[in-house]
Amino acid sequence: MSYVYVIDEERHLLGVLSLYRLLLSPPTTPVVDLIAPTTIRVRATADREVAARLLTDRNLLAIPVVDDDDHLLGIITEDDVADVLLEEAAEDIERLGGSQPLEVPYRLASLPLLVRKRLPWLLLLFVAGAYTGTVMQAFQAELAQAVALAFFIPLLIGTGGNIGSQTVTLIVRSMALGEVALRDIAWIIWKEIRVGLALGAIMAVIAFGRAVLLGVGNDVSAVVAVAILAISLWSATVAATLPLILRRIGIDPAVVSAPLITTLVDGTGLVIYFETARVMLAL
Amino acid sequence: MSYVYVIDEERHLLGVLSLYRLLLSPPTTPVVDLIAPTTIRVRATADREVAARLLTDRNLLAIPVVDDDDHLLGIITEDDVADVLLEEAAEDIERLGGSQPLEVPYRLASLPLLVRKRLPWLLLLFVAGAYTGTVMQAFQAELAQAVALAFFIPLLIGTGGNIGSQTVTLIVRSMALGEVALRDIAWIIWKEIRVGLALGAIMAVIAFGRAVLLGVGNDVSAVVAVAILAISLWSATVAATLPLILRRIGIDPAVVSAPLITTLVDGTGLVIYFETARVMLAL
Questions:
Q1: Are B159 and B68 part of one and the same domain?
Q2: What is the count of residue pairs from A and B with beta carbons less than 8 Å apart?
Q3: What pTM did the predictor assign?
């Protein structure tokens, strides 16, 4: 439907005029008789997501933007909203990939720009992950006694990171779509605990088989299986909680990118692994 | 502008009729005199991205869809296109997070559904990463001689994975936007080689400092620094090439998710690290 917004002399919004109605009425009808009053409008100070959601929910082609005194300032149309939503999706994608949004096409991005956009994340993740060295050093006695434990480090922390990435992506997406919020934290964690346990149990069986195939013996294989179950549970739980808490303290949860959660569960996963080994192998 | 498509008795598309033009012309004018011929249309068999791009590029509100004989079948409107583009962006986000698209809201997703959508990726990544165990086993003599080498495994493969994730995300995004294609592979690799070297050189300095702080001695610290430079270069190059080659052999490059590239560079990064150690420490 094609329509125009009608205002009075002081630019107060009176309503909308449908062109179909105009077309079908006698040429002499005053415009004021054809106006349909509209209560839908957004304040200029409202968040752009409010406007986007109003438009999408009510399936409108446009909504008027007004100031505090209901003076018409302009309109927002559906294609503006699509651009906004697409832009935000694109930024989420870039952030999930662990880079700041480029803001220019990749082919036009200069070398210094690419380095500048990517380095802060790499440094942050390096610093966040640097404690893994301390963790490994703390367990060097265990490591020296059973070098075979080292074989599974990449696989264990990789699986923990992958489960964490999945959870973070699903939760951040749901938050962006307004499906979940902080008040849902209890059932989200409960859901992810069960998903983590189910995924971890399956991965434990496979990891045990892989360890036996590598010929490291049943003892170390059992440690690997128990550790992967515990790490899966832990990763899913941490990854479910973190975006909600960050939102709570005012940080955009899209920045809890997959690489960041990976780094966070790397070191804690190592502690779980070596503590499991210490107990089960009596090191 | 509000307009209607006009067809003849056999549903051949004749053109478009603007409602403004109808409004402004005398009531007795035959419709046929007011039609503007249109050459813009899409075949029903065309890819939905073709329609989306036509609409976006020409800033249209709708385009007609025709069969092979130019009979009008229906129209695609701008809000359909926004939905299509947003849906694809959402799927890309979920894939980059290493999960198959859920297709239902997270809060409605059952436990079995979540496990079913997430397990295939975890298994694939586990199997793809299982060779890291073999790699580590192959270097167990070096590891036993210098246990300190193990301290940096999570940090080194983490950094390699992070750089690979960044590159994959940027390239997949550029491909989705039509900015780069397979013919661009040479300059993309050249660009990523330089970015990888620049990032790697900075990370090498920081990694050297971290290793010295951990007290592992200058020799091992130098190995860590050289390895992180080589791994950065390698990860950026592999991650730049893979999406383009996958597209070439007909696989959606969005499936080269960040976790997959991480897993791929994990094991090769370990080879680089231990080979560097073998040469530099004369193990």
A1: no
A2: 296
A3: 0.72
